[in-house]
Amino acid sequence: MKAAVLYGPHQPLEVADLEVLPPREGEVLVRMAAGGVCHSDLHVMQGHVPAPFPCVPGHEGAGIVVEVGPGVQNVRPGDHVVLLWRASCGACYFCSRGRPALCDLGGTIRWTGKLADGTSRFRKDGQEINHFAGVSAFAEYTVVPAAGVIAIPPEIPLEKAAVVGCAVMTGVGAVINTAAVEPGASVAVFGCGGVGLNVIQGAALAGAERIIAVDIRANKLDFARQFGATHTVLATETDPVVAIRDLTGGRGADYAFEVIGRPETLRQAYEATRRGGTTVAIGLPPTGTAYAVDAQSLVLQEKTLKGSLYGSCVPARDVPRLLALYQAGRLNLEALITRAYPLDQINEAFAALERGEVARSIIRLA
Ligand code: NAD
Ligand code: ZN
User: Does the beta carbon of 235 lie inside 6 Å of ligand 1?
Assistant: First the structure.
């Protein structure tokens, strides 16, 4: 079967023939339908974030279960599934407190590139190739933990379901779960890519009165309006902090989301947050990036600065909820996917993401 392999940072992805071994206990073999092109993979390719090389990247996707290993209860062959990039054990401190995205299991799989038993199911010419985030979406077939799949109704197009696996869950989840934005709130969103557009539509769903979208590219602001932004700020022309304060009675936004991964824009988001408001960091800065906060402002302005991993999701609750909203016409997945590429054009797909041309693109695998 064909898969994209990443041997290290600053290298193109290599589409190669790989062998995929059968699923072991608690694992599932999935025939992939589509994999989403997320900036988190691009961060790895650019050397901003480490990964267990060589690996098959891609952490957003959906497909059909082909085979299950011993002990798998939650899915059967033929089930349509969304893949999760943080599998969780269901029993640890974090899982038992409703925070499965923080479970050790998913983190260990992410950083080692091995499944739960410490080995990989991918081989190339006999050499072991690692998994990525327990998903490895850029493959015709992948083996994933059973705890890393959620069965979905078969009538939902798999290409739409794929983007729920990261962009939609992360963006909408950050609004609904992490920040718990209330109706009537003012929201600022820095970065209108695949994830940021879902923060925008999440804020619209939550009933935010004012949704101010910030980007350095005009085409992204056009997308932002389609997803519910009420105001847009082109940051190359207008200081976004000043603009957001002007649009919020001089106070700043109740909630500001950073969805880029840069310390400068995190600072802007913090400064654009009103006294007593909440700044949410979603964008992933390069490893080791420090960000200085005016410590006094934290106290005197009583601001909250918080991170959001995977939209603070509970997948078994949130995947069905998001898909039901899509089926009810309340969540826009049609306009989100602006391009689809075949696997052998995957490097072009990442180049287009880097050039800022797409809202979200997918790699079509079946
Ligand atoms: P993307 O490339 O599609 O979007 C980033 C957007 O930021 C682009 O529209 C770009 O034009 C804009 N931008 C760049 N510099 C800017 C600046 N100085 N001011 C304003 N806008 C600017 O990326 P994406 O796939 O949407 O991912 C966004 C970020 O979220 C990445 O850092 C990614 O790694 C991270 N991420 C985090 C999680 C999580 O769980 N926290 C999950 C997925 C992705
Ligand atoms: Zn992602």
Answer: yes
323, 332, 351 from 328: Cα distances, Å: 9, 10, 34
* HSE-up of residue 281 (Cα within 13 Å, Cβ side): 16
Task: Give the Cα separation of 168 and 172 in Å (integer).
Answer: 6
**Catalytic member of 59, 80, 131, 231:** 59
Reported as a single tens digit per residue, the pLDDT across 223-256 is 999 999 999 999 999 999 999 999 999 999 999 9
Residue 233, φ and ψ in degrees, nearest 5: -130, 120
How far does residue 305's CA lie from ligand 1's centre (Å)?
Answer: 18
pTM, two decimal places: 0.98
> Across the chain, what does the average pLDDT equal?
98
Residues 6+ apart with CB under 8 A from 263: 285, 289, 290, 291
- Residue 166 is among the residues annotated as catalytic for this protein: yes
Predicted local distance difference test score (pLDDT) of residue 35: 98
pLDDT band at 118 (very low <50, low <70, confident <90, very high): very high
Closest ligand to 272 CA?
1
For residue 209, the CA-to-ligand 2 centroid distance in Å is 27
CA distance 289 to 309: 17
User: For this structure, is 103 an active site residue?
Assistant: no
Q: Does ligand 1 lie within 6 Å of residue 38's CB atom? A: yes
Which atom of ligand 1 is nearest the CA belonging to 101? 40
From ligand 2's centre to the CA of 194, what distance in Å? Answer: 9
- Helix, strand or coil for residue 133? coil
Mean pLDDT of 177-182: 98
Distance CA(257)–CA(181), nearest Å, equals 11
Radius of gyration for the alpha carbons in the chain, expressed in angstroms and rounded: 20
Distance (Å, whole) CA 261 – CA 228: 22
Nearest of 248, 235, 309 to residue 86 by alpha carbon: 309
Selected catalytic residue, list 39, 43, 48, 231? 43
For a pLDDT cut of 90, what percent of the chain falls above it?
99
